[in-house]
């Protein structure tokens, strides 16, 4: 079978989620660069892969997908390698809850309202950052409450929940605001310290 293709950009949190899943499964793939922030706009051909012009998109043997969670689940089930979906019904439901929470409440606050605002704005909006940090604190409290005993969010098994959280947390920790808040959540800090040492994370 042909190598799967990921369409997207290195800077994207959601492209990185898919790339982490592929790396953890040991799947070789091709990354086709798509810069949705390019001055000339999104390439016209790309809308055949993602009708909304977002990244990532994915293709495998003529089968196309968009939406990160759908791609991640497909990769886990389509390829050999360690299973990233829990067998236990409740553990799987908790995994889905964590992923949904991250998409709805963590990505915007941690990445855009805190990290991007601090890193890329000449005069950051401190009110926006403050609101982002308050939301991020709630996210970290919930992750602490949901985390099962063991090294990973759901216990002994690394799952899609860990790999979905990783790029969001990594971006948040690029700034001192994020580092200070994270340090107040010892269980999640320890989880991150373990995860950050995995070859898939270290490779970018």
Automatic annotation (TrEMBL):
A GO-annotated cellular component: cytoplasm
UniProt keyword Transcription present: no
Assigned protein family: Belongs to the GST superfamily.
Protein name: glutathione transferase
Domain GST C-terminal residue range list: 88-204
Keywords: Transferase
Domain GST N-terminal: 2-83
Enzyme Commission code: 2.5.1.18
UniProt enzyme class: transferase
Lineage start: Bacteria, Pseudomonadati, Pseudomonadota, Alphaproteobacteria, Hyphomicrobiales
Tree of life domain: Bacteria
Organism (species): Mesorhizobium huakuii
Molecular function per GO: glutathione binding; glutathione transferase activity
């Amino acid at each position: 079978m042909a190598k799967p293709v990921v369409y997207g950009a290195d800077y994207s949190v959601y492209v990185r989620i898919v790339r982490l899943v592929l790396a953890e499964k040991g799947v070789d793939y091709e990354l086709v660069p798509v810069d949705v922030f390019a001055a000339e706009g999104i390439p016209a051909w790309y809308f055949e892969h993602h009708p909304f012009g977002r990244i990532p998109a994915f293709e495998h043997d003529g089968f196309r997908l968009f939406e990160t969670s759908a791609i991640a689940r497909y990769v886990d089930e389509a390829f050999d390698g360690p299973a990233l979906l829990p067998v236990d019904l409740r553990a799987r439901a908790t995994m889905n809850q964590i992923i949904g929470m991250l998409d709805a409440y963590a990505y915007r606050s941690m990445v855009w309202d805190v990290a991007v605002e601090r890193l890329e704005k000449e005069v950051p909006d401190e009110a926006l950052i403050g609101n982002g940090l308050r939301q991020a604190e709630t996210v970290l409290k919930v992750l602490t409450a949901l985390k099962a005993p063991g090294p990973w969010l759901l216990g002994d098994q690394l799952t899609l929940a860990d790999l979905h959280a990783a790029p969001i947390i990594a971006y948040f920790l690029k700034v001192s605001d994020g580092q200070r808040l994270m340090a107040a959540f010892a269980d999640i800090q320890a989880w991150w310290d373990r995860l950050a040492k995995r070859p898939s994370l270290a490779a970018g």
